[in-house]
Design goal:
Layout: H1 20-34, E1 91-95, E2 105-109, E3 112-118, E4 124-128, E5 142-144, E6 147-149, E7 156-157, E8 163-165, H2 177-183, E9 191-192, E10 194-197, E11 200-203, H3 209-216, E12 240-242, E13 247-251, H4 255-262, H5 268-271, E14 288-290, H6 298-301, E15 307-315, E16 322-330, E17 334-340, E18 350-361, E19 364-374, H7 380-388, H8 391-423, H9 427-430, H10 439-449, H11 468-471, H12 474-477, H13 483-514, H14 522-547
Antiparallel strand pairs: 1-11, 2-3, 3-4, 4-9, 5-6, 6-7, 7-8, 10-11, 12-19, 13-19, 14-15, 15-16, 16-17, 17-18, 18-19
Helix pairs in contact: 4-8, 4-10, 8-13, 13-14
């Protein structure tokens, strides 16, 4: 996945000539004047001095990552002696725009099949996606009278999961037949706490009174650099603008391996070349990750959350400069990468990439991507153009970027698990990671193995190989659940048919009028031109249909 900014601003890439530490301290001094969290970064808190960033060799840490996780990772927040409990966390389950408030919506979370729907008060409800009668999916039902109704036998449940109506019980001859049928504890469906933040619906995957209390006392892990509801503001009140619409995709790869991807800035330019990265740049391999002082670690910034982090210096992408970001991955799966005063965007106070990664079931997860830009002096086009651009246009880039990772992640997932199952070798014995560019990966894997109990699905075995067409299936992984992309998909499909028919009709008219006496000579030519134009437009529509369905991704061509 992208670890940098994908919306390029044309500029000449700059190779820093000063020391990385001096550069970061200068950044902290800038932050000090603005009151930003980096304001506390002082010279005596910096890690060792580093070599000048004037050659690709200079970007490697003096200490290698090693294939085994370090004994004392630099940024693991593990002060609690209690195990990390995967079910006692908030998880993003959907972008709000992707939910249909008029019907039930099926989702998956931690191996559970769930249904979310909105009640008459505008509150989102989450329940097990199974009717207590005979386990039919409630997501195939309908919303009526502020309840969710199973479409199989019309049983109805309220927002607490209580059964409120059994139509068949009205005909038993007993005056209280319905009440008796609904009174049983077996009649209920488990309901789960929900909340909305930063245009996403979050679910707490435990039910019951204690779960509701625990959920109420814990906030979702979110970016600490801005508020959670629109209008977005930074710490100093600066306006925060969304760059494009939020993007989500169901990934056919395990949470564990996508988490590695989020901890891996070194892959960005080689893997996403010509999309958002640049593999041909002399600094394409740059991935210097430096230790964080205590007050900038995950636990300090993310309200006690556990995770890993570092100060990352890298080529920020295609057409961009070498720049330094504050890079965190907080559990249960939130990446933030923040560029303070980004070099290539005049007037920007910060630029932020935020990714939520939700484990849905073994071998699968759902990814949520947000880009933000903040500043009172941002150029007007950067404020206006993203708002006017249809979401599906930006989502095409998101699909292209995630395509670039999927083939790697799926194969890596399968091979790593196969080696462990067949040879008993853990990742630390099968991976070879000799440079500091992989330090966050080693730290994250150590956290998963220890604090995380092996991950959300610790007993998951190797996934069966899947064809590339399924790995890069844009239609089912994104388009069908994205209102903007699905509307564009239907429109282009319909236009493709209409234009193909029009092209044929114009061609027929051209040929027929060519042999009719008395018809001006230019008339057949006009019909022929109209036929060609219709054919060309039909081909354009067909291209967009394919872009929203499936597009082969071949790294060797980029």
């Amino acid at each position: 996945m992208a670890h940098s900014r994908v919306h390029s601003v044309n500029s000449t890439s700059q190779i820093p000539r000063n020391h990385a530490s001096s550069h970061l301290i200068h950044r902290s001094q800038q932050a000090s004047r603005s009151g930003y969290p980096l304001r506390q970064l002082q010279l005596n808190e910096r890690p060792r001095q580093t070599r000048p960033l004037t050659s690709p060799e200079a970007v490697v840490l003096d200490r290698p990552a090693t294939t085994a996780a370090p004994e004392h990772p630099d940024d693991l927040t593990s002060t609690s002696q209690e195990p990390f409990v995967w079910t006692k966390q908030w998880y993003a389950v959907s972008i709000m725009d992707a939910l249909d408030a008029k019907k039930p919506n099926a989702i998956s979370l931690l191996g559970k099949e769930l249904v979310v729907w909105r009640d008459d008060a505008g509150q989102w409800v989450c329940m097990d996606d199974q009717c207590s009668h005979r386990l039919a999916p409630l997501s195939e039902g309908r919303l009526e009278n502020n309840n969710i109704m199973c479409a199989y036998h019309a049983w109805s449940f309220n927002s607490k999961g209580d059964l409120v109506d059994v139509p068949q019980a009205h005909f038993t001859g007993e005056p209280d037949g319905n009440a008796r049928a609904c009174a049983s504890r077996r009649a209920c469906v488990a309901a789960y706490p929900t909340q909305v933040a930063q245009e996403m619906l979050f679910v707490w995957p435990e039910s019951g009174a204690m779960a509701a209390l625990e959920a109420a006392n814990k906030k979702p892990v979110m970016s600490p650099y801005m508020n959670e509801q629109k209008p977005y503001r930074g710490e100093n009140g600066e306006p925060v603008y969304t760059v494009g619409k939020p993007f989500q995709r169901d990934q056919p790869a395990s949470w564990d391996f996508l988490m590695e991807n989020l901890c891996d800035p070194a892959h960005f330019n080689p893997s996403h070349s010509e999309v958002a990265g640049d593999r041909r740049h002399e600094f394409t391999g740059m991935a210097r990750i430096e230790e964080l002082p205590e007050h900038l670690k995950v636990g300090a910034l993310f309200n006690g959350a556990e995770g890993v982090g570092g100060l990352t210096t890298m080529l920020a992408g295609k057409g961009r400069s070498v720049d330094t970001s504050l890079h965190h991955v907080a559990m249960p799966g939130v990446l933030t990468q923040l560029y303070r005063n980004p070099k290539d965007i005049p007037g920007a106070d910060f630029e932020l990439l935020q990714i939520h990664l939700t484990p849905t079931k073994p071998g699968h997860c759902r990814i949520f991507v947000h880009f933000y830009m903040a500043g009172k002096k941002l150029p007007l086009p950067l404020k206006i153009i993203p708002r006017l651009t249809p979401a599906w246009i930006g989502h095409l880039q998101g699909l292209e970027i995630t395509d670039g990772d999927n083939t790697f992640l799926i194969a890596q997932d399968r091979k790593t698990r196969e080696i462990e199952a067949q040879k008993g070798l853990p990742w630390s014995k099968s991976y070879y990671m000799p440079t500091g560019a992989d330090r966050m990966i080693a730290q994250m894997k150590k956290w998963v193995d220890t604090r995380g109990g092996g991950g959300p699905f610790p007993n998951a075995g190797p996934q069966a190989p899947i064809a590339k067409e399924h790995a890069l299936d844009r239609l089912h992984q994104h388009t069908l659940t994205c209102p903007s992309c699905f509307a564009a998909y239907r429109t282009f499909r319909a236009l493709r048919v209409v234009l193909a028919i029009a092209a044929g009709a114009f061609a027929a008219a051209s040929m027929s009028t060519a042999f009719i006496s008395g018809v001006a000579m230019h008339v057949p030519a006009l019909f022929a031109a109209a036929s060609l134009a219709s054919s060309a437009l039909a081909m354009v529509c067909n291209k967009f249909v394919r872009l929203l369905t499936y597009k082969p991704y071949e790294h060797h061509r980029r």
